[in-house]
Amino acid sequence: MNTTTTTTEQQTTSTNTTPTSITATLSHWILTRHSTRKFLKSPIPPLNLIRTSLQLAQHSPSNSNIQPWRLTIVHGKALTRLTTALVSAASKETPQIPPLPKKFAHYRRNLGALVYGAPGYGLAHDDLEGRKRAVLKNYEFFDAPIGIVVCMDRSLGAADSLSVGMFLQSFLLALAERGVQSCVEVSIAGYPEIVRRELGIEGEMEVLCGVAVGWEDG
């Protein structure tokens, strides 16, 4: 199923929940949400959980309340076609993503040690083939049964990207609250034309990232 969400202005509603319980609950999900890189291919999380999480996230703030986020949700055969095309491209072509400035490079090295080293995939530093296969898992959405592509109209600016980021954080926390795990993937933005072609996304939409969604394996 390919679904592009559209948004309307949301009105906030008050609740009788006490500030203490709100803080405890919010802190819990902020601290326990994590990037999952090992998903169960089945069963697929009920789509009503995804919809509810999206509806909650739409209450996020945005510049002039334009709510610039546009999402395409894929699973089943559509997701298989997308991942097959992305893996094929990533195996042959360099992604269209600018390199990190040197002053930020140590963050990527530290993450790489966690993801590919003993705490994660357990790959030796010189296991180049193993690391290459692990990198390609990004383009397979880590075997998650649901893939989401996050876009924004390319005519918008940096402030609107912040709005998308706030929406995305709200969405991820809402998923985590329902026991559904996720992983944000900037990697797929490196092949925007393939993503647009496979999902029928309009050319004026900039592909910002993907999100793998599903039940965590283990």
From TrEMBL:
The keyword Flavoprotein applies. Its cofactor is FMN. It holds the Pfam family Nitroreductase. One of its GO terms (molecular function) is oxidoreductase activity. Keywords: Flavoprotein, FMN, Oxidoreductase. InterPro entries: Nitroreductase (IPR029479), Nitroreductase-like (IPR000415). Residues 30-215 form the Nitroreductase domain. Belongs to the nitroreductase family. This is Nitroreductase domain-containing protein. It comes from Hymenoscyphus fraxineus.
